[in-house]
C-alpha cells in the first residue's frame, strides 16, 4: 500500500454471521470510519421497489440504476447513502427489501456502480468496510482481511432473536440468501485466499473483536 492511501480493514461473511456488530466495534476501537456496503445494495433495492419496477428483470434494474443519483459519504464516522437526495433510513431493512436484495445485488451494473462508490470512500478516511466481496473484489490489495462465519444453526438463532421471528421462517430466508449470494456469477461470497477466517459460533463479540485487533496490530506493528 502506498503511504498516502488510507487503511482499509475488510470484514466479509454471510448474513447473520455477526460481522456487522464486530465491524462496528473494530471501527470504534481503532477510531476508523465504518462502512456498511450491504446498506448500499439495500438502498438501491428499496428504490427499485419504490419505483415499482420488476426486480426479476435485470434490464429494468439496470435502466433504473443508470438514471438514479447516488450520493455516498460519511456522517459522524458512518457511511450514508442518499438516493435521489433521499435517505431511506430504516426502510432498507423491510421484509420486501430482504426478499429482493439478493436479486438486485447480483446485477453486474449495480455492483459496478456501488463498488466504484465504495472505492472512492478510501480517499476520505481509514475505514472498516463490511460486506461480501470487500477482500476479494473491492480492496483486494488490503493486507487486513477477515471472514466471519458461524454455523447455520447459530446464525438462524441470532437472526430469530434479533427479529423476534420464528426460526423456521428465518432458516428459509437465510438459506435462500446464502444460496443466492454464494452462487451468483458476479463477485460471489467467498473467502479471500489471504483472509483470516473466524468462526464466531462459540465466541462472544468482544472475543472476536479482540482476535481481529490482535491480528491487525501484529501485522501493522510487527508484534
Ligand atoms: O449485509 P446485508 O445482509 O445487509 O446485505 C444485504 C445483501 O446485499 C446481501 O444479500 C448480499 C448483498 N451484498 C453484496 O452482494 N455485496 C456486499 N458487499 C454487501 C452486501
Plain-language structure description:
- The chain is an alpha/beta fold and 223 residues long.
- The chain has one domain: Rossmann fold, CATH 3.40.50.
- Helices cover 50% and strands 16% of the residues.
- It has nine helices and seven strands; from the N terminus they run βαβααββααβαβααβα.
- The chain has helices spanning 19-30, 37-50, 58-67, 95-105, 108-120, 134-138, 152-163, 167-183, 205-221; strands at 8-12, 33-36, 70-75, 78-83, 127-131, 144-149, 196-199.
- The strands form two sheets. It has a five-stranded parallel β-sheet with strand order 2-5-1-6-7. Strands 3-4 form a two-stranded antiparallel sheet.
- A hairpin with a 2-residue loop joins β3 and β4 (78-83).
- α1 (19-30) crosses α9 (205-221), α2 packs across α4 (95-105) and α7 packs across α8 (167-183).
- The chain is globular.
- The mean pLDDT is 93.
- 2'-deoxycytidine-5'-monophosphate (DC) binds at residues 15, 37-38, 41-42, 101-102, 105, 131-133, 177, 181.
Amino acid at each position: 500500500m502506498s503511504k498516502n492511501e488510507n487503511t482499509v480493514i475488510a470484514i466479509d461473511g454471510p448474513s447473520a454471521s455477526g460481522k456487522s456488530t464486530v465491524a462496528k466495534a473494530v471501527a470504534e476501537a481503532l477510531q476508523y470510519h465504518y462502512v456498511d456496503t450491504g446498506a448500499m445494495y439495500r438502498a438501491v433495492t428499496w428504490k427499485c421497489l419504490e419505483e415499482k419496477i420488476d426486480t426479476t428483470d435485470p434490464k429494468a434494474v439496470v435502466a433504473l440504476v443508470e438514471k438514479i443519483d447516488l450520493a455516498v459519504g460519511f456522517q459522524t464516522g458512518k457511511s450514508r447513502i442518499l438516493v435521489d437526495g433521499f435517505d431511506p433510513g430504516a426502510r432498507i431493512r423491510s421484509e420486501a427489501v430482504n426478499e429482493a436484495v439478493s436479486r438486485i445485488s447480483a446485477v453486474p451494473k449495480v455492483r459496478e456502480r456501488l463498488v466504484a462508490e465504495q472505492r472512492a470512500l478510501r480517499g476520505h478516511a481509514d475505514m472498516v468496510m463490511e460486506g461480501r466481496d470487500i477482500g476479494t473484489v473491492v480492496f483486494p490489495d488490503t493486507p487486513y482481511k477477515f471472514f466471519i462465519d458461524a454455523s447455520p444453526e447459530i446464525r438462524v438463532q441470532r437472526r430469530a432473536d434479533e427479529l423476534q421471528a420464528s426460526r423456521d421462517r428465518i432458516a428459509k430466508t437465510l438459506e435462500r440468501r446464502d444460496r443466492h449470494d454464494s452462487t451468483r456469477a458476479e463477485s460471489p461470497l467467498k473467502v479471500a485466499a489471504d483472509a483470516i477466517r473466524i468462526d464466531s459460533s462459540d465466541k462472544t463479540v468482544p472475543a472476536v473483536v479482540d482476535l481481529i485487533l490482535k491480528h491487525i496490530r501484529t501485522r501493522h506493528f510487527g508484534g
